[in-house]
Design a protein that fits this description.
single chain; 349 residues; alpha/beta; OB fold (Dihydrolipoamide Acetyltransferase, E2P); Rossmann fold; Ribonucleotide Reductase Protein R1, domain 1; six-stranded mixed beta sheet; 13 strands; binds guanosine-5'-triphosphate; binds magnesium ion; binds zinc ion
Amino acid sequence: MVSFGLVATLTGLGWNHHWEAAFAPFATTHIAGRIRLVHRGKFDVFTEFGEFDAEPNPKLRPGKDRAVTGDWVALTPDGTRIDAILPRRTAFVRRDPGDRMRPQAIAANADVAFLVMGLDLDYNVRRLERYLYLTAESGARPVIVLNKSDLCDDLATCVRECEKLAPLVVLNARAGEGIGLLSAQMQPHETAVLLGSSGAGKSTIANRLRGNELIPTAPVREHDSRGRHTTTRRELIQLEQGWLLMDVPGMRGLQVWTPHNPQALDIAFHDVAAILAEGCRFSDCRHDEEPGCLIRAALESGQLDEGRWDNYCKLRGELTRLGEATELQAKEKEKQRWKSLRKKAGLRT
Ligand SMILES: Nc1nc2c(ncn2[C@@H]2O[C@H](COP(=O)(O)OP(=O)(O)OP(=O)(O)O)[C@@H](O)[C@H]2O)c(=O)[nH]1
Ligand SMILES: [Mg+2]
Ligand SMILES: [Zn+2]
């Protein structure tokens, strides 16, 4: 056992009826824990009995059942071994930058995704749209956090661009201005995850909420506002405000993964989805030059932004290609499986 956390109750860690039901098969043999930190294959786990250093049961399949920060797990009573990971309610998943044909979970079981964007050169609505898609896919509710308000000359324009996309909070985390607005977005015992580019100010926000400087932060590069990837681990933090927060390293790539939720694109681009649902004159309209095209009309009237439409098409294209590639991969795997089965059975392959 390492140390006692702030609130040594399961409720304080986000436990509720849902988790109680999910944990039922382990209730008499295990204790429940929530992953606080992952480091080199070892896990720091919060429990109602304190914090433990645990190792995964070797039976957990390494590629598939890898616990991440925020996961609820079943621990052996001595707190040393993780025997099961409870099915995630939400998961922020991107394409693994190392192995492009695999998903990579960033953080699990967040109720809210704070999408942090600096109001310096980090500001980019197209990237925000991509985060909003991944958030819809994750199952969490998005809140856009525009940080570094002290560095913005035209706050009104940025606010106008973002407030139609999702609930919005404007901050100056360095000075602590607006920090209380984050709590207003949270219900008691909910968990939020901070997502955004390196240097956007995620750890500064976490430190402000905690009232200390425990997490290291570092200045961004002057010429392009890029961060230096200061945070290298994902950490779940209990806040005295009564909710939980996950600080994660800034993301370099934001490649999408195959959808689990086919509605995610329509949720993130609800305005585009509404126009498409209304239907252009031709059902196979390519939204190009066809007469009676509602998309063209919306673009021409300014109701739909050209950049937003392009971004939607780009994302949709990526998802289609990824879907085709994973289907092909699955077919190939199945073929190999049959081949080896036939071989084992002594049949000609
Ligand atoms: N001017 C200004 N600077 C800020 C503000 N918030 C954070 N910063 C600065 O931005 C720099 C980067 O902040 P971090 O909190 O380290 O950023 P991060 O998002 O955690 O970055 P990674 O850990 O690399 O992903 C630090 O120098 C902060 O002091 C703000 O509201 N205004
Ligand atoms: Mg950080
Ligand atoms: Zn059309």
